[in-house]
Amino acid sequence: MDDLFASAPPSATAGIRVGIGGWTFAPWRSNFYPAGLVQRRELEYASRQLTAIEINGTYYGAQKPATYASWRDQAPDGFMFSAKAPKRIMQSRSLASTQAQVDDFVGGIAELGAKLGPLVWQFEAGRRVDADELDAFLSLLPREMDGRLLRHALEVRDPAAVNAELIDLARRHQVATVFTDSTEYPSFADLTADFVYARLMRSQPIDTGYPPSELALWAERAGAWSRGEDIAGLPHVGGPAPALPRRDVFVYFISSAKERNPAAAMDLIRQLGA
Q1: What share of the chain in percent tops pLDDT 90?
Q2: Which of 39, 78, 116, 207 could form a disulfide with 112 if both were Cys (CB 3.0 to 4.6 A apart)?
């Protein structure tokens, strides 16, 4: 079984990282994980097939720092974890009073060290947040921890709050806005930070999750983003993005035909490295 871990893991191409949401999902044990692989080694295996994973479980409850340290040590050098912030913060009636909770969450997950990627602050559709409240909340988010820069991504699922004012606010705080490629949630590709965060949510129950032509298109789009380019063909709600020479890119295949998301991610990694 250890020969499964002998080959070199993939590396991020041009600052583009590709992954899935989580690593524990029963159907993946028949189409992604090798037969006989014990569950405690699933992260070790998944992190050697992908270049990033978005941790969704932190939305339901933060982990102990020792748990984050264990995940860090199981993943190879160069790998990155993103993570969703706990819902107890995101559903708070008073966002301005969550400083202690924010610091507690960030201080714990900082145990991921160099493998810590963007933190995702997701407001569900039923959570109304006005611009002043959001401005105050974004001001609470720490920008560095233990000498490392921290990056934040904002996902607002209230359609009424998705407007040019939101884009201007995100740019002022240098926070990325999440592109969802979804028909269920607001989907907009405005660039608001020095990195791009995309959660692709249209996988299908086919071998590669997405048709090959669509994966090729996402490889082109990810490459354009990494070169600092905006993509006019995607929906936008605000003004043009400031020009940058390059941007880091995080692309995750999330939800939908979830059983096929690892295949889609691995195929996109292959296309980017070709």
Answers
A1: 91
A2: 116
